Structures are given as C-alpha cells and as structure tokens.
Amino acid sequence: MTVNLVLITHDDIGTSLMKAATMTFGELPLPTTSVAVSYETDPEDLTPRLQQLAKTMTANCGVLVLTDLFGSTPCNIAQGLQDVANVRVISGLNLPMMIRVLNYPNLSLDELADKAISGGKEGIMACECDNHPQKVAAV
C-alpha cells in the first residue's frame, strides 16, 4: 500500500519543502501534492474539492496530510479531510518531518503518521556555538 502525501500550507511553504526534499531524494518516493492556502482562499470552496481528491487517493491507499500551523486555516481545512476514510492529519510541518516520512515510503499510514511526529520533534534542536558555550537541555 502506497500512502499519498498531501501538504496543506500557507502560501508556498509546501512547494518549497517539496523542492528541498527533491534536492535530497531526486524523485520523491511517495506521491506528493502541495496545496497552497492564501488569505484569499475560501475554505468552504476548497474543503469539498480536497475531500473529493482524498476519496480518490484513498481508493487503494491512505493519505497523510501534513499542515504547517495548528489552528490556522490550512490546518482547519486539513482537519476537514479526516471524515474521509484512511486519512491522517499531522500539524507542525517542517523539513525534518517531511524527510523522515519520505525515508520510509513502505510503511503503513499509521506508521508514517508516527514517523512524521517523531521526525518533527527530533528535528528541533538547540545548537551550541564554541564562541558561546551554553548548557542546553534537550528539547
């Protein structure tokens, strides 16, 4: 079962992350779609179209939706897709999260959702500099 990856983000954040991931992988190992949400986007228009897309994608596989900011319009639109079977939504999208997901293209939808969360969390680190040594607790 191949999971489809859908990025629903503010403006071009998703497209930029896809471009960065493509620099790492060449061809992305999962079918990936980016949906840009701007201030002019009407969620009541976009949500039903994305629900139909998700239904098409889940015919033979699952859909992992990654969105950038919890509580924002892109996230609210993404949460509207959870009514479709085999759709998981994870908020807090960052490049480490996306790379982690793409590193495991053969995992199930639930396993990829777990990888997304761990990749996002473990990709956040405090960086120390020799000029400014500090004791920093793990994040």
How would you sum up this structure, described in words?
The protein is globular. The chain has a single domain (4-122), classed as Rossmann fold. The chain has a four-stranded parallel β-sheet. Helix 4 (95-102) packs antiparallel against helix 5. The termini are far apart. It contains five helices and four strands; from the N terminus they run βαβαβαβαα. It is an alpha/beta fold.
**Spans of at least 5 consecutive residues with low confidence:** none
Name the helicity range.
40-55%
The CATH H-level homologous superfamily: Phosphotransferase system, mannose-type IIA component
Query: End-to-end distance, in Å?
Result: 34 Å
Which series of helices and strands comes N to C?
Answer: EHEHEHEHH
How would you concisely characterize the structure shown here?
With 139 residues, the protein is α/β, with parallel strands linked by helices. 41% of the residues lie in helices and 17% in strands.
Would you spell out the secondary-structure blueprint of this structure?
Elements: E1 4-10, H1 13-25, E2 32-37, H2 43-57, E3 63-67, H3 73-79, E4 87-91, H4 95-102, H5 109-122
Parallel strand pairs: 1-2, 1-3, 3-4
Helix pairs in contact: 4-5
Keyword list:
5 helices; 139 residues; 4-stranded parallel beta sheet; globular; Rossmann fold; alpha/beta
